[in-house]
Amino acid sequence: MNSANITMKTNKTLLSFAVACGLATVSSTATAAGFQLAEYSATGLGRAYAGEAAMADNASAQWRNPAMLTYLEGTQVSIGAIYVNPNLDVDGKTQFATGVQESKSDDFANDAIIPNLYISHRYSDQLAVGFALGTNYGMETDLGTDFTAAHFGNEASVTTVEANLNAGYRVTETVSIGGGVRYVMGEGSFGATVPSQTAAVSPLNEGDTLKYMEGDDTAWGWQVGAAWQLATNHRIGVTYKSAVDLKLEGYATGAGFGLTGGKKEDGYMNLSLPATAELASFHQLSEKLALHASFNWTDWSSFEKLEAQLENLGTQMVKVENWEDNYRFAVGATYQVDPKLALRTGIAYDTSAVNDKNRTITIPETDRTWLSLGASYDVTKQFTLDGGFTYIFAKDAPITESRGYQSDNDAQRVGGKFVGETTGNVWLIGVQANYRF
Q1: How confident is the model at residue 316 (pLDDT cuts 50, 70, 90)?
Q2: Cβ distance 293 to 332 under 8 Å?
Q3: What is the C-alpha to C-alpha distance for residues 69 and 57, in angstroms, rounded to an integer?
Q4: What are the backbone dihedrals phi and psi of residue 384, each rounded to the nearest 5 degrees, phi first?
Q5: What residues have CB less than 8 Å from 283, skipping those under 6 apart?
Q6: What is the pLDDT of residues 232-268, one digit of tens each?
Q7: N or C: fewer beta carbons within 10 Å in the chain?
Q8: Could you tell me the pLDDT band of residue 31, with boundaries at 50, 70 and 90?
Q9: Are 168 and 209 in contact (CB under 8 A)?
């Protein structure tokens, strides 16, 4: 396999990395665009994360807007987890010199549990501080070694953990501002193997590693936010998170890199977790009913390509990405049934970060629609339990590889051209426990 093929695999590593994250969220066709995870709390899950930058239910509010810390009283602790069950399928055909092979993999995105922890403390009438531990990105996919388009990539994983230190300050009776420092720990891997049609006409065996690469890194980022209390029952929130640049240092191996017999070579790939912004509103229409809405933007157009830097092979084009900015629209409602019980619901539409040309097998990114339900119950005056449930419809979408880029063409020469379609859905179930001192 030539260096261009090596490029394709390496490039897939990060691409897959990206896919992994997205898949965790649908595992890529899942909860948010690209490899972004929206699931930061079960409280917000029940309303499809509508109005988050303007909401202050509990200590988790700081994750989306640190300015909302000024709306929380005393000291609060919130801890929870969300179970993600993506059902992602790909079905198509691979056209090789020896004929046409069926390429099919069902439910290839792995389930995941996304935990979180939040602590807030009201220091004074004006100042509040907080600590947050969660994740914005993650995923794991495995299409299997018997997948006949495995030469484009058949496995990927990405895991990130993020810790925040936040502060909110009430500037006036109606205006609050906030900010925080973000520490991100990330790791990812990607693999591609020899498909059966290639093994039939070469010394390689089906399932042999063509390319495998993994790496990890830590990096810093920041976030800022503001809230404006338009009137007693109406509020607007806005927030911005910076991009975070990871240098995933690790090793590469596989015949595609010329590394056989267990040989490895050190290297790294750069991955930028994109900047995001949100504009949200909250409206208490009556004593029992509140409406909320959000508009989110993610700077996925910054994700243009993946390049690997290997110790001896130097710079290798992993993959051309050419993603597009993503937009998310969400509306929700909260109904206070009685002093102890509140019900939530919401609907959201999440646009794809890729067009039909740039969709890949390992990152089958597509439009998604959320339908959500949730509830809160005050067990005592200090202790509240939240639950949320969401079903996500992923739009059926076509996939073709090679897409015409050089690195894709090199992979196509190894095992043929893939033409198919991705389909899928995602179930999300979350619980949250909140205590106020």
Answers
A1: confident
A2: yes
A3: 10
A4: -130, 140
A5: 233, 234, 235, 290, 291, 292
A6: 999 999 999 999 999 999 998 888 788 888 889 999 9
A7: C
A8: low
A9: no
